[in-house]
Automatic annotation (TrEMBL):
SUPFAM superfamilies: DinB/YfiT-like putative metalloenzymes. Residues 10-137 form the Mycothiol-dependent maleylpyruvate isomerase metal-binding domain. It comes from Streptomyces hundungensis. It comes from the Bacteria. Residues 149-248 form the MDMPI C-terminal domain. This is Mycothiol-dependent maleylpyruvate isomerase metal-binding domain-containing protein. Residues 59-80 are annotated as: Disordered. One of its GO terms (molecular function) is metal ion binding.
Length: 256
C-alpha cells in the first residue's frame, strides 16, 4: 500500500465526482461493453451500493458480513431521474468517506479479503470506483486518466486480491505454468514496473524490471485498463511482447 488512509478517503470522493461527470448527460439505459450484464444506470447503482455497504461495515464496526439488504438506501433512488441518481451517488461517497475518516485506518472491521481494518475499505472503495469509472468512460467515449500513484496502487491492490483469492483456489485452473512470468512496464512513469512469477504453489509478484515470458508495455493508465480487462489487449498504445497466450490465460483465469 503506497497511499495513506486519508488520501484514499479524498480520492474516493474525487473518483465518484469524476464518475458522476462522466455519466452526466449520458443515456443511462445503454449496455456497458466491459460489464455486459449492466446498463450505465446499473453500473452507477452498483458503485453507490458498494459505498453504502462499506460505510455501513465501518460505521457499525461490523465483525461479520453485513447483508446488503440491511444497508439503508442501498437499493438506489426510486424512478429514472438522472439528477436523483447523481445526488444519491454523491451522498453515498461522502457518507462512506466520512465513516472511514472517523474510523481511522486501524479500526478492526470485517472484510472478505483477510485484511480486517478500515484501511482495507478505503483502498478497496477507491479502486472499485476508479475501475468502474473506466467502464463508464469506455461506454460513453470519454477520456480517462488517473493520478500515477493511484493507478500504480490499483495494480498493486489487484495483485494483492488475486493473491488472496488464489490461496483458496489452488485446485482450480492455474494462472499459468510454473516458470512462466509476466512483466508490466509503464513507459511514462519511472519505476512503475511489476514482475509476476508463476510457480508450483501459485504466484508471487514484486515491483521490478526483468525479462519475462510476456511483457505488457505502454502508458500506465492503459496498462492498468488492459490488466483490468477494461481495454482489449490489441489496444494500439499497449505492446504485448513475447508469448501473448500467457497473458491471455492470466486475464481469463483472473476474471473473478
Amino acid at each position: 500500500m503506497t497511499i495513506d488512509h486519508d488520501r484514499y478517503c479524498d480520492e474516493l470522493v474525487r473518483q465518484t465526482a469524476e464518475l458522476r461527470a462522466t455519466l452526466s448527460g449520458a443515456d443511462l439505459s445503454v449496455t456497458v461493453p466491459t460489464c455486459p450484464d449492466w446498463t450505465l444506470r446499473e453500473l452507477a447503482t452498483h458503485v453507490g451500493r458498494a459505498h453504502r455497504w462499506a460505510g455501513r461495515i465501518v460505521s457499525t464496526k461490523a465483525t461479520e458480513p453485513v447483508p446488503p439488504k440491511e444497508v439503508p438506501g442501498g437499493k438506489g433512488p426510486e424512478g429514472d431521474d438522472p439528477a436523483a441518481l447523481d445526488a444519491w451517488l454523491a451522498e453515498g461517497a461522502e457518507s462512506c468517506a466520512a465513516a472511514l475518516r472517523e474510523a481511522g485506518p486501524d479500526l478492526s472491521v470485517w472484510s472478505w479479503a483477510g485484511e480486517t481494518t478500515a484501511s482495507f475499505w478505503s483502498r478497496r472503495m477507491t479502486h472499485e470506483t476508479a475501475v468502474h469509472r473506466a467502464d463508464a468512460a469506455g461506454t460513453v467515449g470519454a477520456p480517462y486518466t488517473l493520478p500515477a500513484d493511484v493507478a500504480a496502487d490499483s495494480l498493486d491492490e489487484w495483485l494483492d486480491l488475486i493473491t488472496f483469492v488464489q490461496s483458496f483456489k489452488q485446485s482450480e485452473a492455474p494462472l499459468g505454468e510454473p516458470g512462466q512470468s509476466l512483466h508490466l512496464h509503464a513507459t511514462d512513469v519511472p519505476g512503475a514496473e511489476w514482475l509476476i512469477e508463476i510457480g508450483e504453489q501459485g504466484f508471487t509478484w514484486r515491483r521490478a524490471h526483468a525479462k519475462a515470458t510476456v511483457a505488457v508495455r505502454g502508458p500506465l493508465t492503459d496498462v492498468l485498463r488492459v490488466f483490468h480487462r477494461r481495454l482489449p489487449t490489441d489496444t494500439p498504445t499497449v505492446e504485448i511482447l513475447g508469448e501473448a497466450a500467457v497473458f491471455d490465460h492470466w486475464l481469463a483465469t483472473t476474471a473473478f
